[in-house]
Task: inverse folding
């Protein structure tokens, strides 16, 4: 076994060696490998540890901090231990069903090669859910792009459009609907967009498949399924753990995978057939997606998670062309899976993929192929041309490393703006056309949102997407994603709290109970104390909100069942993205037919504001419009958030509300405008006492509800019994938008400002 004599190199020589061989390991990490192996490593071993010790794979900076998050609750079937989390959904026809949920990022690849980067992000998240044995039922796409009117507008618009095209270009052919998502534009994303992806699946609890080898698996076959391995995506995990360098853009392209949605479609169908055979005969198996680190990562984790070793023959891996063994082992070629199965089942599995579904005819050299075995000795051994190129304790390969990073609050002074002589009417219309508020139809129209036929509320219809996943059942599943980047610039702790609170409010607004969450934590370089401080503060805020708001009608915290951390989201110029703790909230309804939308329903019905309007314009779109940032971000009282949320959910369940919309971006004025535009009715509203700009545009959390006059007394009684602050805004009317303090105008004027502005911003 030929090794690299790195132990004899000076620190300077070793640093040069690592750089020459595209290894992002530090000098200290490389020397640590020598100690762990008690010898110099091979080049293959160096690349293996380079990937497994990357931030993307080992969470070496974030792991200790993530322990703050609540992950357990009575409804959690599987927490954040495997490729996806699973939460209990319902019992139906004698079977217990769960919703599988996963959340990932594909930020760096999407900035470098937007179409392919976004498409492979969708492909990867689907595999994470499929590998739990689930049927994939929906996706969501929280997106963050730069300023489409700034200095880099041409590049920003190109990235934004290609990302959307990539999501559509992959998801539509595979046939999975987009159910939800959110979108923000900000200068901080000019050099580093954020492409987060969420995926949901449906599985019977008894049919869950795990991403580790089963008990007594010694001698089981290790099988690779899918596309022929090539060098695309090689080093992708370590690439995602580095600061983007515009000068290295061309070389970075090689770290981005190449998607093939049509092959994926066939793989999904073939794998569904394998699931049937496995369940029919109760065959013990392990199954894992091949994402970061490719075959190496998938196989080593399948073995180590069960306490076994792995022995692979790299020569037996089907490849597009000949490559170095470390490239074959670690490349992140798309559309591949790894199975661990008993030899008695191997021939049937190979036949399903290779003959029944004819993978070799779908894509050149695509197939299912045995490449190795599960071993009793807990070692990870790779052979190439009869040479042992890796021989390492498997737990050393997969355990990663942990750093205790320094966190230091940056010296920043924020001041509350003192805007004077603002034309509020002009500001209002400008806000409705602002890219962070206007209609997202321009994006949604690219996506197939109703394929499979389970969608109840497609994206844009309501505050959360809604689907009916089980034929013959009334149960509904709601999904929302949220985070306001400009809050993070001011105070990442409150940005985390607000992201949790708003994601939950959006789900509650349609009548669903929030039951579980995932997070994708997007931040700068954790080695810089000020950026690591931002990360720590955001996680503290998320944890605090999840525990103090908790699951409605329960004493438990709302659990995080899956998630992702994405660091190094900054350019070589040193500019980091706005701290962006993106939250996805899963909600469940016993009867999806009770769900409501924000659009106003009936002329002459009453409008009630729930939640005081405070002087909390910091980070608001109103300030953004005037080139200000401010200081006072929304600071929700979490006990009140819980009370308001439980009221809304219960009132909808009882059929007392006609419509409901949460107050967030753009404040009360934009909330009412969206309700009017979506319902085609007007409003006649009086505001409570206070400073007009704050009353209209503060993004303090709250709700506006529409109530039929016949049910008004019952609704007010519920509010009073719960001690919830509320204000009678007024009534709905035919077609005029009337708020005291703003000029009266037809709703049609508002619709014109709101409807097509995003297309103009991205064109």
Result:
């Amino acid at each position: 076994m030929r090794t690299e004599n790195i132990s004899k190199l000076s620190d300077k020589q070793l640093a040069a060696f690592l750089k020459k061989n595209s290894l992002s390991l530090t000098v200290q990490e490389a020397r640590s490998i020598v100690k762990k192996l008690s010898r110099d490593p091979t080049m293959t071993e160096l690349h293996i540890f380079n990937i497994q010790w990357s931030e993307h794979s080992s969470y070496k900076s974030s792991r200790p901090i993530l322990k703050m998050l609540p992950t357990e609750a009575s409804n959690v079937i599987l927490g954040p231990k495997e490729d996806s989390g699973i939460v209990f959904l319902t019992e139906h026809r004698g079977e217990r069903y769960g919703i599988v949920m996963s959340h990932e990022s594909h930020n760096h690849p999407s900035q470098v090669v937007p179409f392919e980067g976004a498409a492979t992000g969708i492909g990867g998240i689907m595999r994470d859910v499929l590998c739990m044995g689930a049927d994939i039922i929906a996706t969501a796409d929280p997106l963050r792009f730069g300023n489409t009117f700034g200095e880099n507008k041409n590049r920003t618009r190109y990235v934004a459009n290609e990302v959307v095209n990539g999501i559509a270009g992959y998801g539509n052919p595979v046939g999975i609907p987009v159910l939800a998502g959110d979108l923000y534009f900000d200068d901080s994303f000019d050099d580093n967009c954020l492409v987060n992806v969420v995926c949901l699946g449906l599985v019977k609890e008894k049919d869950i498949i795990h991403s580790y080898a089963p008990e007594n698996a010694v001698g089981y076959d290790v099988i690779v399924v899918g596309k022929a391995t090539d060098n695309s995506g090689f080093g992708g995990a370590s690439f995602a753990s580095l600061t983007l360098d515009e000068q290295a853009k061309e070389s970075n392209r090689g770290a981005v995978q190449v998607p093939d949605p049509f092959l994926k479609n066939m793989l999904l169908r073939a794998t569904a057939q394998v699931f049937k055979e496995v369940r029919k005969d109760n065959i013990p198996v392990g199954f894992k997606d091949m994402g970061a680190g490719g075959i190496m990562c998938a196989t080593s984790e399948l073995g180590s998670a069960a306490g076994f070793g792995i022995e692979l023959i790299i020569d037996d891996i089907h490849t597009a062309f000949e490559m170095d063994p470390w490239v074959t082992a670690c490349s992140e070629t798309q559309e591949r899976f790894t199975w661990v199965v008993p030899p008695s089942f191997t021939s049937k599995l190979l036949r399903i993929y290779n003959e029944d579904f004819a993978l070799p005819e779908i894509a050149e050299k695509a197939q299912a192929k045995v490449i190795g075995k599960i071993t009793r000795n807990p070692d990870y051994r790779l052979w190439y041309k009869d040479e042992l190129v890796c021989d390492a304790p498997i737990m050393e390969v997969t355990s990663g490393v942990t750093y205790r990073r320094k966190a230091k609050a940056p010296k920043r002074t924020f001041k509350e703006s003192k805007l004077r002589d603002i034309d509020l009417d002009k500001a209002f219309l400008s806000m409705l056309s602002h890219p962070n508020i206007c209609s997202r139809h321009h994006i949604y129209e690219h996506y197939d949102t109703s394929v499979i036929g389970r969608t109840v509320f497609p994206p844009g219809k309501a505050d959360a997407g809604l689907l009916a996943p089980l034929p013959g059942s009334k149960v509904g599943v709601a999904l929302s994603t949220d985070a306001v980047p400009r809050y993070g610039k001011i105070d990442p702790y409150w940005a985390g709290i607000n992201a949790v609170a708003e994601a939950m409010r959006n789900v509650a607004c349609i009548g669903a109970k929030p039951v579980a969450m995932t997070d994708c934590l997007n931040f700068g370089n954790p080695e810089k104390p000020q950026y690591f401080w931002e990360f720590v503060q955001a996680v503290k805020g998320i944890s605090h909100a999840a525990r103090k708001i908790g699951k409605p009608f329960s004493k438990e915290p709302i659990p995080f069942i899956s998630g992702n951390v994405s660091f190094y989201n900054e350019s070589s110029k040193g500019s980091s993205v706005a701290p962006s703790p993106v939250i996805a909230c899963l909600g469940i309804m016993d009867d999806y037919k009770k769900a409501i939308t924000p659009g106003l329903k009936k002329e002459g019905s009453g409008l009630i504001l729930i939640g005081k309007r405070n002087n909390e314009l910091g980070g608001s779109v109103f300030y953004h419009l005037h080139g200000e940032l401010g200081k006072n971000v929304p600071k929700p009282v979490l006990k009140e958030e819980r009370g308001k949320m439980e009221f809304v959910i219960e009132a909808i369940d009882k059929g007392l509300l006609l419509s409901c919309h949460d107050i967030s971006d753009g404040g009360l004025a934009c909330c009412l405008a969206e309700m009017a535009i979506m319902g085609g009715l007007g409003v006649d509203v009086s505001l409570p006492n206070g400073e007009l700009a704050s009353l209209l545009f503060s993004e303090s959390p709250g709700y506006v509800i529409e109530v039929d006059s016949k049910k008004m007394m019952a609704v007010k009684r519920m509010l009073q019994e719960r001690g919830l602050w509320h204000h009678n805004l007024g009534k709905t009317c035919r077609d005029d938008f009337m708020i005291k303090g703003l000029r009266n105008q037809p709703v049609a004027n508002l619709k014109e400002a709101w409807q097509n502005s995003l297309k103009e911003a991205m064109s």
